[in-house]
C-alpha cells in the first residue's frame, strides 16, 4: 500500500511507522519534518499535500494538540483550541482526502484515553477525544467508495512516560508495539467506524 502518515515524528506516529514501513510505502508528512510539509490547520496545505502524493491507499493521522489545565482556569477558547487543532484538523484531512484515497482505502485518526479514563486538568483533551469518537462512528457509515474510517485511542506510551507520566497517576503504560499493531489493524484489516482502544 501507499500510505500517508501525518505526524510521523511524534511518539505515537513512530509506532505506526515502525509497524507498517517494512510492508508498505510510507510517505511521512508533518509541520516541520517529513517527506512532505503540511499544516493541517490550512485546507490549502492539505489539498497541496494530496496533489503532491497522488492517489494513496491509506491515510494515518497521528497529529493534534490540546490544552491542559484546571477547569476553573479554562475558557471557551481553551476548549476551542483542542477542537480546532485535534478534531477539526483531522476531520479536514478526511474530507479533503475523499477523492485522493483509492476505492476500499482507509483513514485512521488518533485520539487518546482521556475521554474513557480521565485525569485532572484533562477536560480539554477528553472533549476532543470524545468528539473524534463520535465523528468516526457516524462518518464511517456515510463514506463513499467503500472507504473505511477508524480512530486509534492509546493510553500513555512507555516512551512518553518521562515527559507526561506525572499527569497520569495510576495509569498503566502501553508499549509502542501494541499501539503500532492498532494502526495495522485499522489499515490492513477490515474494521470501520471503530474506536480502537489501547489501554
Q: Would you write up a description of this structure?
A:
The structure is a single chain. The chain is 39% helix and 20% strand. With 199 residues, the protein is of the alpha/beta class. Helix 3 runs parallel beside helix 4. The radius of gyration is 16 Å and the shape is globular. A seven-stranded parallel sheet has the order 3-2-1-4-5-6-7, sandwiched between helices. It contains six helices and seven strands; from the N terminus they run βαββαβαβαβααβ. The mean pLDDT is 97.
Strand order of the largest sheet: 3-2-1-4-5-6-7
Count of distinct strands: 7
Task: Name the poorly predicted regions.
Answer: none
Element order, helices and strands?
A: EHEEHEHEHEHHE
* Terminus-to-terminus distance: 28 Å
Oligomer: single chain
Roughly what is the average pLDDT, rounded to an integer? 97
Q: What percentage of amino acids are in beta strands?
A: 15-25%
Q: Tell me the helix content.
A: 25-40%
The largest pleated sheet is described as:
7 strands, parallel
Question: Treating each run of at least 4 consecutive H or I residues as one helix, how many helices?
Answer: 6
Q: What Rg is obtained from the alpha carbons, in whole angstroms?
A: 16 Å
Tell me the overall shape: globular
Structural class by helix and strand composition: alpha/beta
